[in-house]
Amino acid sequence: MLAVKALDSDGFGTELSVAEALFRLADADAAPQVVNLSLACVAGEELAPIAIDAALDALVERHPDTVVVAAAGNDGTTVPAWPAAHKAVVAVGAGDRLRAAAYSNRGYWVDYTVPADGIVSTYVHGTRPAPGTTDGCAVPRQFDGDYAAWTGTSFAAPQVAGALAALLSEGRNARTAMGELRRRSTPAGDAGRMLTTPAGLSYEGHGRAGV
Questions:
Q1: What is the pTM of this model?
Q2: What pLDDT is recorded for position 181?
Q3: Architecture of domain 15-117+152-202+204-210 in CATH?
């Protein structure tokens, strides 16, 4: 796994910082098979921010077998969020059954929605977060030692990225892996397609993943 820094220690960044990280991947001799972007910004317009648009175009042009997955965002709106809404990106929202969660962005540009409430992941030891969500940003609901239960599309996107990485590690190319993921999903209106158990796919494999 390759981690490329795009945000600061508080989880904030700019269009340029995200674009620079994507350009670094585009310029790599061997790009990751799957790139996960657990970040989102609602720009209030249909067109992607120029720098991010150019960086994503460069990445997929130079590495056509790389799949880019991004969080749809937690603003509870249908307004496109970037980079998820880019045509070459797999946009992932959060929800349950056949609908998006109230906080999850949704719309024609969202490709998949997966359950993403109470996902256990790492947290900085010794820091205690406020409960719930604040200003649409996902924060831990519980805290115990080095781990916390998180909610948000930033924890939905890696599930789809992991499922795709597992399929790619079995020898599929990007096109067939995407087709298999679609086959395992069901239509969910403005939530895209619902993947109720993406974790049901084995994530064990030897693919290269970038975040």
A1: 0.82
A2: 93
A3: 3-Layer(aba) Sandwich (3.40)
